[in-house]
Specification:
The structure holds two protein chains of two kinds.
Chain A lengths: L5 E12 L2 E12 L3 E5 L6 H9 L6 E6 L2 E2 L10 E4 L11 H11 L4 H14 L15 H13 L5 E5 L7 H18 L2 E6 L2 H7 L2 E6 L2 E6 L1 H6 L4 H6 L4 E9 L2 E4 L2 E4 L9 E7 L4 E4 L6 E10 L4 E7 L2 E7 L8 E6 L4 E5 L15 H7 L11
Parallel strand pairs in A: 3-8, 3-9, 6-7, 7-8
Antiparallel strand pairs in A: 1-2, 1-4, 4-5, 9-10, 11-12, 11-14, 12-13, 14-20, 15-19, 16-17, 16-19, 17-18
Chain B lengths: L1 H26 L15 H8 L1 H33 L4 H16 L2 H19 L7 H27 L2 H8 L4 H29 L3 H6 L7 H7 L7 H29 L5 H27 L8 H5 L11 E7 L13 H9 L2 E7 L2 H9 L7 E2 L3 H9 L3 E2 L29 E13 L22 E4 L2 H11 L9 H14 L3 E5 L3 H4 L7 E5 H10 L3 E4 L5 E8 L1 E2 L5 H11 L2 H11 L6 H4 L20 E3 L5 H16 L1
Parallel strand pairs in B: 1-2, 1-3, 6-7, 10-12
Antiparallel strand pairs in B: 4-11, 5-8, 5-9, 5-10
The chains are: A alpha+beta, B alpha/beta.
Chain lengths: 378, 640
């Protein structure tokens, strides 16, 4: 794990606020020039992790290594790391130029050099001619670019981005995703990107770190975490999943809903209870007689690219995405190819996710008076 | 509904601003009258500008306001940052609650408790007089603090923690982050906090009253102490100046606030505005400090003549004088400025403070928190102070001018051996009536019970003076120790209630000259003031008898500069000084060289110096049991 290329390493980091563990034994290595995304629902500890790296927070236990050196208590202003804050935190009393030049002025860089570097930055973020503009007169997207320029001008080894796109509307968000990725490639800086948007995470990252309840659930490439999620939480959080109780009869043989299916997984004990993940787009709707499993259509939603169809199989509701239309009340058969099946070991999240009989978890949460919705900033 | 709302708004504005408008108008009146506007004049403005006492008080007030507001702003800002960064929400709530208490508290509570604290600590540390200019400064800082916090804290909340973090992320230390990012963004809050603190300090009376030491009188204190005599229009002029000053400050505060709330507006203009504002404030502050620190320039040449007679051996020492408001010639209207003349002659610096009643003076003295060298109490109070060992014997060898005191004012009951006091001025009560409204000759108090003048009669709104009238009617001793006497007097007073229009003190100065009442008892000297604006008024000493009082100069037992006090007393008795004071105060003078001086404009005044013998009685100090008995009777009279 700890080879020379790791620019940053977190080892067994634990942080508690008011006796509540916010980060529970987090370990993570990040290589130079990597685009890493911390992904998870609000309150999962991703922002706290970022703040530890930035130096705004000291871990209760565990170590932070930067270029191989422990920097646990090195103050933020002495770290070669810069942050793009959630709501940008641009200084309202300074104009665009002074905001971008702020870090260099603090470091007492000669004026000529500051001027030249600010101009370069404005070019990089496509804001030439905005030098004198006041911050209050910028749009959200423009503020975003100023924030990037203000951070990047300091030539940090690592750039931390705390949900930087959350405040933008959908189309602008997509454009900025591409632009951020380009900037990262061009400057060759390590990006650590925090988001709760799994699509954003999948499309931009070299490495995705899925977090929940202060723990890292899964570290892997976007493809890994999508195709081979380690548990029900990851499977559900990344994309849509049907997660069904199953029993591993033997290598490559799993039994769900009373039907034995072929799969590509092995290495489980005989008759081990497992979670079976089947992505909605991997299920074909066929005539009931041709299907291995049968059920009744309870809902059909047209989404443009495909239909989203909910099928009731013995009380468990499957989500299926298909271009073939069905009608509510139709009896249908479900066809599943062996490579569409992913088997996971049982975990504490088993049974909590992957059933479409109710609303999404988020919807459940806001409707539940016992659950306090946490602030985005932890 | 809309018009109704407008009318309502208009009414509110009228009620709020009509009094101020009237005051401003009358500050430009050429006469003293408060109901007839004669013609436009800046006379009263000139008068208050020429009065050293007023100007000193104004300087003190401004200096105190600037310094206390500055200190409160620094402390308040630091405190706000501390409170904002507190982790524990309960601690935060508790501290905010505690911070707000001084704001909710009545000023009286704040003032009294601060005074007690200062006196306690002063005694503890062994200071003779614990109240000083520093205690009033501390008090002002104390009550200003919450207002600064209240202005700064919301600003901090508004900008949140992220700016600090962003600045630290970009390489700033905590201090640098505060200076470069936080300060510019909470600046408007700090500025409006400062201006608010300044304004509040400027017009505070109650807290200043309790925490003030010797020799540092502020304007509100000065104005209040002037109630012994009528309030002169120079106070209107002064109040107008203060009102305009405060108005300008408030407009500045509001414009800062309005600006900072309109965040979408160009930051640059806000910044420019803030900078301009702070430059203005700084300039004003510097100007005030420089101006206040400057010695007042006007010196009377009178002092020069006396320089040879007075030694300057005590030059550089300080003399603390505690006197009634408007009870010494102060240089207005080209009169002699007594205090300044004394300072110039002797080189002694005089701290001059005022009180509004014997009782106020007594309680200040009794608290032991202040040490004065000169006081001027009335007869009965001298008796009381003497009995309580609060007076020092005078050294008459050092007061050769005592020879000028009229024999009839020597060996008086309160100082039979002439040891403790030197008479300063003499007054009598009497009956004032309006000759247009009252027919026939009036020579008896009984007219105050006459049904013919129902609703036209005023009387004193203080128990002792009101009782005395009934006691004269009944032929009693005004210092009777028999409860039955007081009871009988109270019964007589109750009978008077049906003809009375009101019980008044100062209001008489508008009611009588304004023909709003026909009959009223009051002090002779003050009648002369009223007569100036209404020539129909008449004055008599009723045959049953009147009260006579002598205010005399004394030295409290805890005086720190006894020699200077002797010098001051002798100086007050200099014929020229005594003349100036007699002219200014308008009461009778016990000074033979004044009474016989042809330049004395009141020399032959029949009212101050009646040819016929007036039947008169002094008030004595009444023992507490009788006093509380008649005070109880007085309440019955008021309620019957």
């Amino acid at each position: 794990m700890s080879n020379q290329k790791n620019i940053l390493e977190l080892k067994n980091i634990t942080v508690s606020f008011d006796g509540e563990k916010v980060l529970d034994d987090i370990s993570l290595s990040i290589s130079d020039k990597e685009f890493v995304t911390l992904l998870g629902p609000s309150g999962c500890g991703k922002t706290t992790t970022l703040r530890i790296i930035a130096g705004f927070l000291e871990p209760d236990s565990g170590d932070v290594f930067f270029d191989g050196k422990i920097i646990n208590s090195l103050p933020a202003n002495k770290r070669n790391v810069n942050t793009i804050f959630q709501r940008y935190a641009l200084f309202p009393h300074l104009n665009v130029y002074d905001n971008i030049a702020f870090g260099l002025k603090v470091k007492k860089v000669p004026k000529d050099e500051i001027k030249q570097r600010v101009e370069e930055m404005l070019k990089l973020v496509n804001l030439e001619g905005f030098e004198k503009r006041s911050i209050a007169k910028l749009s959200g997207g423009q503020q975003q670019r100023v924030a990037i320029a203000r951070a990047v001008i300091n030539k940090p080894k690592i750039l931390l981005l705390d949900e930087p796109l959350a405040a933008l509307d959908l189309k602008l968000r997509k454009d900025m995703q591409v632009e951020l990725k380009n900037i990262q490639r061009r400057l060759g800086i390590t990006f650590i990107f925090v988001t709760h948007d799994q699509e954003e995470a999948l499309s931009m990252s070299d490495k995705v770190v899925v977090m929940n309840e202060g723990k890292i659930q899964h570290i892997g490439t976007p493809k890994d975490v999508y195709n081979e999620p380690v548990n029900a939480f990851v499977a559900d959080f990344i994309g849509e999943s049907n997660i069904i109780d199953g029993v591993m009869l033997d290598d490559f043989k799993v039994k769900i809903e009373g039907v034995t299916l072929q799969c590509l997984d092995k290495g489980f004990k005989t008759n081990e209870a497992v979670d079976v993940v089947i992505r909605p787009e991997d299920v074909d709707i066929v005539h009931p007689e041709k299907g291995l499993i049968t059920g009744e259509v309870t809902s059909v939603t047209f989404l443009g690219v495909h239909f989203e169809i909910i099928v009731d199989v013995n009380g468990f509701k499957w989500m299926i995405q298909t271009t073939d239309e069905s009608k509510v009340g139709d009896k249908v058969g479900l066809l599943i190819e062996p490579d569409a099946i992913h088997i996971m070991k049982k975990s504490k999240y088993s049974g909590l996710y992957g059933d479409y009989s109710s609303f999404s978890d988020e919807m459940d949460e806001i409707s539940n008076p016992d659950v306090e919705i946490e602030d985005e900033e932890d | 509904m809309k018009t109704l709302g407008k009318i309502f708004n208009a009414l509110i504005f009228i009620f709020l601003y009509a009094p101020i408008a009237v005051m401003i108008v009358f500050s430009f009146n050429s006469s003293r009258s408060t109901y007839v506007f004669e013609h436009f004049s800046l006379k009263w403005y000139g008068e208050f500008l020429n009065s050293t006492i007023t100007i000193t008080a104004m300087k003190n007030t401004l200096l105190l306001a600037v310094i206390s507001a500055l200190i409160a702003t620094v402390f308040g800002t630091v405190a706000s940052i501390g409170i904002y960064n507190l982790k524990s929400k309960t601690a935060k709530g508790a501290i905010m609650g505690v911070t707000n208490i001084p704001m909710m508290n009545p000023d009286v509570v704040t003032g009294v408790s601060l005074m007690l604290l200062f006196v306690f600590i002063g005694r503890f540390l062994g200071f003779g007089s614990s109240l000083s200019v520093y205690t009033i400064l501390i008090a002002h800082i104390t009550f200003n603090l919450p207002y600064v916090i209240l202005n700064v804290l919301p600003k901090l909340r508004q900008i949140g923690n992220t700016y600090t973090e962003a600045a630290r992320d970009l390489g700033c230390t905590y201090t640098k982050a505060f200076m470069k990012v936080i300060l510019p963004n909470i600046y408007s809050g700090i500025l409006s906090g400062f201006l608010m603190a300044f304004t509040l300090s400027l017009d505070d009376f109650v807290i200043s009253y309790f925490t003030n030491g010797t020799g540092f009188q502020t304007l509100p204190l000065l104005i209040y102490s002037k109630t012994k005599k009528s309030v002169k229009p120079d106070i209107y002029a002064l109040s107008t100046v203060i009102f305009v000053a405060v108005l300008i400050l408030l407009i500045l505060v509001n414009s800062v606030r309005a600006k900072s709330e309109k965040e979408q507006k160009s930051k640059k203009s806000v910044r420019a505005r803030n900078i301009t504002l702070s430059i203005i404030s700084a300039t004003v502050c510097v100007a005030i400090v420089v101006y206040s620190a400057m010695p007042s320039g006007k010196y009377g040449d009178f002092g020069k003549k006396l320089e040879s007679e007075y030694s300057t051996s005590l030059a550089g020492t300080t003399l603390n004088v505690f006197n009634w408001g408007e009870y010494i010639s102060d240089g207005s209207d080209d009169t002699l400025n007594v205090i300044e003349a004394f300072e110039q002659t002797t080189g002694i610096e005089v701290n001059y403070d005022n009180y509004d009643s014997n009782e106020t003076m007594y309680s200040k003295l009794k608290s032991g928190a202040v040490a004065y060298d000169i006081i001027i109490p009335s007869d009965y109070m001298i008796e009381r102070l003497k009995n309580e060992n609060m007076l020092k014997k005078l050294d008459f060898k050092q007061i050769p001018n005592y020879k000028y005191i009229d024999e009839q004012y020597k060996n008086l009951y309160f100082d039979e051996k002439n040891e403790y006091s030197v008479p300063y001025s003499v007054g009598k009560t009497g009956l004032i009536y309006n000759s247009k409204m009252v027919k026939g000759d009036v020579n008896s108090w009984s007219v105050m019970w006459d049904e013919k003048y129902k609703g036209q009669v005023l009387t004193f709104n203080n128990s002792r003076d009101a009782f005395s009238i009934a006691q004269f009617m009944l032929g009693q001793d005004v210092n009777s120790t028999k409860k039955s006497d007081w009871k009988a007097a109270a019964e007589l007073l109750k009978k008077q209630n049906r003809v009375l229009q009101a019980r008044v003190m100062d209001e008489i100065f508008t009611k009588m000259p304004g023909n709003n009442a026909a009959i009223a008892p009051y002090y002779a000297g003050d009648f002369l003031t009223m007569y100036e604006s209404n020539k129909d008024l008449r004055f008599v000493y009723p045959k049953e008898g009147v009260n006579v009082f002598v205010d005399s100069v004394c030295v409290p037992s805890n005086s720190k500069n006894y020699e200077a006090a002797m010098m001051f007393i002798n100086f007050l008795l200099e014929p020229e000084v005594a003349l100036a004071n007699a002219e200014y105060i308008c009461y009778a003078s016990p000074h033979t060289a004044v009474v016989n001086n042809d330049r004395y404009s009141l020399k032959d005044n029949e009212i101050l110096y009646p040819k016929k013998k007036v039947k008169e009685q002094y008030y004595h100090n009444i023992d507490p049991e009788i006093r509380s008995y008649y005070e109880k009777l007085w309440e019955e009279v008021l309620l019957s």
